[in-house]
Amino acid sequence: MRGREGAGGLDERLLMRHLGEALTGGLREADGNCDGTADPSLVPPLVLAYVGDAVYEVFVRTRLALGGDATVHKLHVAATRYARSASQAGVVHSLRGILTERESDIVRRGRNAHSGYVPKNANVAEYRYATGFEALLGYLYLSGQLPRLLEILARAADQVERVSPDAGGSTAAEPTDEGRDLL
Question: What superfamily in CATH does domain 7-34+41-182 come from?
């Protein structure tokens, strides 16, 4: 990923630099507003997912916006393809071999948390895995593990784009049965 051009001729190093600076700035601001005693592993998984959803949205929008000229409508359509529960569930399954035990635990906690809500266009299993993915992003962000967060985000984008090179596929890759038990 270093120095290679991704979607729309985008230099991924530039994207990661911009995103890293934005995320670091957010953490600096948060540090000024709290006493720093909160342990992200103690934050409820749905709150981690709430934060992770925002981090992922900023990443996707930044990636698409820096990727070339497009109308706002085209950017929105492309962004929804990354944000689909099926896409995020596929990302979680593609990450299973590289997650640490702690990260897998965060994904499991997020997946097993029940929000009482599932969007009408998503199936329950995919939605729960997507929640686990977002919880992982929230955990990595709140714990200040920005290099790891950026690595996971880059792998997520690669997975979505691999399944649908124009980020336009209708579903993510189906996980294997062995991957279902891991996370």
Answer: Ribonuclease III domain (1.10.1520.10)
